[in-house]
Amino acid sequence: MTRKTSLLPVAVQEGKAMSRRAAAAARDMVRSARDAVREERAQGTTEYAILVGVLVVIAILAIIAFRDRVSELWDAIASGINSL
């Protein structure tokens, strides 16, 4: 049987009486941990969005730089499909 872990102190998990101050501190600790996880997820999403944006810019610059070659390749693909 696996034991479920919790971020709450042992006294709260076992149902023992706690002072209001200790209970508030426990809630604040859990809230802080939850907020830290959210911030890490947001940072990862932001980094991913920046990476995708940079790759799009590089792709656009490559297409502009090799416009003639891309046009020839596109025409060759289109004529190959049309000949089917």
Index terms:
79% helix, mainly alpha, 84 residues
**The number of domains:** 1
Number of strands: 0
Amount of helix: over 70%
Mean residue pLDDT: 79
Strand content: under 5%
Q: What integer value in Å does the Rg equal?
A: 28 Å
N→C terminal distance: 63 Å
Number of helices: 3
String of helices and strands: HHH
Shape, per Cα inertia axes: rod-shaped
Structural class of the secondary structure composition?
mainly alpha
Quaternary structure type? single chain
**Which stretches are low in confidence, meaning pLDDT under 50 for 5 or more residues running?**
none
Largest sheet data: none
In short:
The protein is mainly α. It is built from 3 helices and no strands.
Write up this protein.
This protein is 79% helix and 0% strand. It is mainly α and 84 residues long. The protein has one domain (10-82). The model has no long low-confidence stretch (mean pLDDT 79).
Write the topology of this structure.
Layout: H1 10-13, H2 20-65, H3 67-82
